[in-house]
Design goal:
Strand content of chain A: over 45%
Strand order of the largest sheet of chain B: 1-9-8-3-4
Distance between the termini of chain A: 30 Å
Oligomer: heterodimer
Radius of gyration of chain B: 14 Å
Strand content of chain B: over 45%
Helix content of chain A: under 10%
Helix content of chain B: under 10%
Number of helices of chain A: 0
Chain lengths: 114, 112
Amino acid sequence: ETGVTQTPRHLVMGMTNKKSLKCEQHLGHNAMYWYKQSAKKPLELMFVYNFKEQTENNSVPSRFSPECPNSSHLFLHLHTLQPEDSALYLCASSQVGGRPTGYTFGSGTRLTVV
Amino acid sequence: DAKTTQPTSMDCAEGRAANLPCNHSTISGNEYVYWYRQIHSQGPQYIIHGLKNNETNEMASLIITEDRKSSTLILPHATLRDTAVYYCIVRSHPSGYSTLTFGKGTMLLVSP
């Protein structure tokens, strides 16, 4: 347990389904991030939320829709995904400002699109 | 943020020290060196970071050269559970947020 909790751990969904990934951090951090890791590829940053405001969207297709209702929770809403969207989706949090610190990552959601 | 170069893979015998190198020749004065590792199919785990002085914590030691163009992460007594991909990342710390960009890292295999 790292202080960042992701649910579900595994998800299988059809291309016409709608599902959501959830991330919760218990560290009092003020920034949260979604990363995607496809097989044999480096982690790719998808979205950044800084003080609940989306500050970065790295050309992510609109079938991925993030939501950050407060500084402790982050969601990734999924709809009409493609098989190539199958990947490990990782949430992370960090503290912006003050002493430099690292990111804390969750364990990820392994998504399979069929 | 400056680019880093790491070997693709390394091997280490259990109980021996693992020394993982990283080159960051274009690092600028306000950029920190961070190390993370990722055990298979888990989220990356923060290990250590430093600016110019050597650093040590319960997991590892970080040695940064005087010109800051390279660094070495040292796991003093590697165990089988240290088998993972190790990422060296250079990152600045502006007053706002700064993102963490991962490369391919070094796959460290610790063998019995």
